[in-house]
Design a protein that fits this description.
- A hairpin with a 5-residue loop joins strand 1 and strand 2.
- By secondary structure, the chain is mostly helical.
- Helix 3 (61-72) runs antiparallel to helix 4 (77-98) and helix 6 (134-146) packs antiparallel against helix 8 (182-195).
- The chain folds into 2 domains: 3-98, DNA polymerase, domain 1; 122-224, hpI Integrase, Chain A.
- It is 49% helix and 4% strand.
- It has a two-stranded antiparallel sheet with strand order 1-2.
- The protein has helices at 14-27, 33-48, 61-72, 77-98, 122-131, 134-146, 150-154, 182-195, 219-224; strands at residues 165-169, 175-179.
């Protein structure tokens, strides 16, 4: 990725833009495309909210705190903290490679309200399984027994499976191996034996779980519980 495709000059913060572009050039070779786009967008908004003609040396923790207050007016605390994490990552790099003071260090994350997560009881889980049929039943069982995230689940391919483990590529493109218990192994056996709908080109989809049309499951569909 070229520097000219990173942050664009919308004001007079030319020195700051050049510095951020150098950082984005650096991280573009070390992170996923999705992470890069998140960092780029956050830093563009941060720069756009700085006073005109603010050089990197002029920025203080107060600038960051004021920016977070602006973000928090229209976003939740978790999103606001994600912006802060991006800024902290940038200043950690700037401290190491450009000898700038890390002014983001004293800035703390916003307190996130506790999320009241309710766990299904065994009776509720069994009631769901009794209602689910075929491919939906297999999908729910597999998710419940592996604990995969939605995106991890929807990108599974048959090539990721061995007899006792499944290879999962998670956040930050990190790979881990999740053990498959007997329930998962039986579920996979059912899908391989014919419960999975065929695609146009082959008997089984490249993806291990997918829609009845043979397409890859969409994250929104998984979130809504529309597995088939």
């Amino acid at each position: 990725m070229s520097i000219k495709n990173h942050i664009f000059c919308r004001g007079a913060n030319i020195k700051m833009i050049a510095l951020v572009n150098s950082w984005l050039d650096y991280i573009s070779l070390r992170c996923s495309l999705a992470t890069y786009k998140t960092y780029r967008s956050a830093m563009q908004i941060f720069i756009d909210n700085l006073p005109l003609k603010t050089s990197p040396e002029d920025i203080t923790p107060m600038h960051i705190e004021n920016f977070l207050q602006v973000v928090n007016q229209s976003h939740k605390e978790t999103t606001t903290n994600a912006y802060l994490i991006t800024i902290k990552t940038f200043y950690k790099w700037a401290e190491s490679y450009c000898e700038l003071p890390n002014i983001a260090t004293p800035v703390t994350e916003l307190k996130v309200p506790e999320f009241n997560r309710r766990i299904l009881s065994d009776e509720e889980y069994q009631a769901i399984l009794e209602k689910a049929k075929g491919h939906a039943h297999n999908t729910i069982q597999f998710l419940a027994n592996t604990g995969l995230r939605r995106n991890e689940f929807r990108f599974l391919a048959w090539a990721d499976f061995s007899a006792e483990f499944v290879r999962v590529i998670g956040k930050g493109s990190k790979t881990r191996y999740v053990p498959l218990n007997l329930t998962c192994q039986r579920t996979l056996g059912k899908d391989r034996s014919g419960n999975a709908p065929p695609t146009r080109k082959t008997q089984y989809s490249y993806y291990q779980y997918y829609t009845t049309s043979g397409n890859q499951s969409q994250q929104k569909k998984l979130l809504e519980g529309n597995f088939i």
